[in-house]
Amino acid sequence: MSLKKCFRHCFCCQKRLYFMFVALTSLVLVSFYMMVNNEKTLRSTNVPPWIKRLSLIENIENKNYSSSLDQLDTWISPDGLFSPKCNLSEVTEALRNAKIHGVELLKLQTSYKWQIILEGGHRAVYKPMLLPKVKRPEACNVGCEHPEYEVAAFTVNRLLDLNNMPLTTGRKVIWSIDIAPVASQDLLDSVNITEDGDVCFEWTCLHKTFSTRFCFDNGEILGSLVYWLERPVKTFKSKHHNSYYHDYHPYSPNKIFRSKLPGDQSFCKEFRDKPPYTDDKWFLHVIDMAVVDYFMNNFDQKHTYIAGDDGQPYANIMLDFGHSFCQAKDILLGAAVYQCCKIRNQTYEALVRLSGSLRTKFEELTAGDPLFPILLDVQFSEMEQRFKQLMTLIKFCFLFHGMEDVIMD
Question: pTM value?
Answer without folding.
Answer: 0.80
